[in-house]
Amino acid sequence: MALSDVSRRPLPGGLLPNRLLLPAAAFAIGLYLLLPTLVVVPMSLTKSQLIQFPPEGLSIHAFTDYLSDAQWITSTITSLEIALLAMVVACTVGVLTAIALHGRRFPGKGLVVGLILSPIVVPLIVLGLADYMFFARLRLIGDWVEIGLAHSLLVTPYVFVTVQASLTGLNPALLRSARSLGARTISVWRHVYWPAIRPGVLAGAIFAFAVSFDEVVIALFLQSPGATTLPVRMFTSIQYDLTPKIAATATLLLGLAVVALSAQGLLALRAGKARRPRAGAA
């Protein structure tokens, strides 16, 4: 009997429902998690001058109000600058740290890794207060650069984790062969490390940018009239000026998150396809 004939046979009676159970449960959980967030979208399309749900008619005046407001656009540009700076610093530090610790065993390595990952565990309000006291002592409060450096501390663990995960698939024999053949450090980086860690670096950069762009607690501690991020402006507007402009901005941020997750998923898919030929060849 041919293998194709076997594959065409109907599944046993109890197997098909079991195979459908997991996707159905995943869809239900995803809908439960996303539904409160998706409510923001129709709220941003209301004709009213106040946030309400369900909306009264449909209009895009909230988006035009956002695009025509110089303060909100300035805050958006500031958030982009901060996120880019945090992403660059996090990628540099996270990649170099992951490579430095790769394959090395020494007493206290777990403590070092825990210290690198600690910004994920420490409450944001503690990090914000510590950053404020540190930069205030240096008299550097009031510029977006300080917020970007503070955010880089927060997002570096994301890059470190993704790069470290990519390094697990690196064959140590490649490193030994390159070094035994006299390859310089830059050559080892270009031809051995970079092809292995590239998906992890890109995924970590996406996470770092998204987390920094959306962060509000640390930015609240370090803000100034000339350095107010978009999430901080949204937070203060909720207290004093509750208009659909906030919902429109939240919708744009939701779109940014969707783009970031889609890009990360495409990177993971491409990395999986790149590994399949090697596995087949082996």
Q: Would you spell out the secondary-structure blueprint of this structure?
A:
Layout: H1 3-7, H2 15-38, H3 40-43, H4 61-68, H5 70-101, H6 109-121, H7 124-137, H8 144-167, H9 172-180, H10 185-214, H11 217-222, H12 230-240, H13 244-281
Helix pairs in contact: 4-13, 5-8, 5-10, 6-8, 8-10, 10-13
Describe the structure.
By secondary structure, this protein is mainly α. It has one domain (71-275): Orthogonal Bundle (MetI-like fold), CATH 1.10.3720.10. It is built from 13 helices and no strands. The chain has helices at residues 3-7, 15-38, 40-43, 61-68, 70-101, 109-121, 124-137, 144-167, 172-180, 185-214, 217-222, 230-240, 244-281. Helix 4 crosses helix 13 (244-281) and helix 6 (109-121) crosses helix 8. The longest helix has 38 residues, at 244-281. 28% of the residues are buried.
